Amino acid sequence: MRLLIDYRPALRERTGVGEFAHELARALSCGAADGAAPHVTLFTNSWRDRPAATLAAEMPAAKIADVKVPVRGLVWAWNRLEWPPVEWLAGAHDVVHSQSPLLIPTNRAAQVVTVHDLDFLRNPDQMSAEIRRDYPALARTHAGRADAVMVSSHYAAGEVIRELQLPPSRVRVCSPGTPLWSDDVRRRRNTSRPLSPGSHGKHILFVGTLSLRKNVGTLLEAYARLRVRLPHAPPLVLAGHRTPASARWEARCDQPPLKGHVALTGYIDGRQRMDLYTDALMLVLPSYEEGFGLPVLEAMACGVPVIVSSRGSLPEVAGPAASPIDPDDADGFAEQMGMLLDPAIAASAADRGAAQAARFSWSACAAAALGTYHAALEVHAGRR
């Protein structure tokens, strides 16, 4: 099978979508799916954001189609004109996999799109200009024309089937796997100083883009209440890309009782994530909506206890590792954070998280993706 994967989300700041694209491509190109590796081409087309110098060594079996075409022009032409066909830019393939809900134009290949969540339909005003312009208007049509639609959780599958009005047979769940570096982080945590409340360098952690759906306001309120109860509570670290919506939270962090106790890191790369998880007492993700919630899986795999909201896919991903809390219940989050400062309770939660994380792997994701591609080929042949 000749497979083209849209690698563009992994070029700049590799957030959840970029991490999914990179690790899926790596697992497929390295033959992680039971040795049935397709011939993978990674498509990029940015003049500014270049593929990493180590990419070819990391995926030696993959071909990199690095096309020098202006990003905005190609995106507009693909989304609005459905032209030019990707064959003109990267050659012929059997399956073309878009990392967004919108199709990549092709003359003959089967088409797969990825829908990680539907926030672009529910909160279009919070999206980038390109997404706001194209996704709400085109996603239903494009997903309906796709030969298969890939999602990362069963929750997302249900939402996509209902909201985009798709037959369940064309929606396939391909859940992400645990990071390759999680074993290293666990070793570092086991050899570091004990995880005791208030110990130097330890912190409560949030990882994610600081968008409205991440519900950082409730987290800050919960943390403020925790500090009232426990004045020596460890600091809170907000690790993720800042957005216009996060200005209000940044301002609040500069005011008592949060001033001096909350750190905002901005975007963090893989090495920084490892360091933050190594010293994390817990991860708190109070989101209103998640299509998967990759930081929860990362934290569990690293031996970090997790606290999650009861919305979206988070209860599915965390499983028995956490007792989900209503996203507006600041007292509930404060209470859970206080409980996890007890080393015995934290150790038990971490053990449950490690067992839950073991259910996910990138090899399983690659195997599910291969099944998706073969199903897309069958649908495509029937349509032709």
Structure commentary:
- There is one protein chain.
- The protein is α/β, with parallel strands linked by helices and 384 residues long.
- The chain has two domains: 2-177 and 362-383, Rossmann fold (3-Layer(aba) Sandwich), CATH 3.40.50; 182-357, Rossmann fold.
- It is built from 16 helices and twelve strands.
- The strands form two sheets. A seven-stranded parallel sheet has the order 3-2-1-4-5-6-7, with helices on both faces.
- The longest helix is centred in the C-terminal third of the chain and has 22 residues, at 362-383.
Number of helices: 16
Biggest sheet details: 7 strands, parallel
Topology, number of strands: 12
Let me know the average pLDDT.
93
Backbone shape: globular
Please provide the ordered H/E string of secondary-structure elements.
Answer: EHEHEHHEEHHEHEHEHEHEHEHEHHHH
Give the termini separation.
18 Å
What is the CATH C-level name of the largest domain? Answer: Alpha Beta
The share of residues in helices is: 40-55%
The main sheet orders its strands as 3-2-1-4-5-6-7
CATH fold name of the largest domain:
Rossmann fold
How many domains would you count in the coordinates?
2
- Uncertain stretches of 5 or more adjacent residues: 195-200
CATH superfamily of the largest domain: Glycogen Phosphorylase B
Strand content: 5-15%
**Shape-level CATH architecture of the largest domain:** 3-Layer(aba) Sandwich
Radius of gyration in whole Å, from Cα? 21 Å
Structural class: alpha/beta
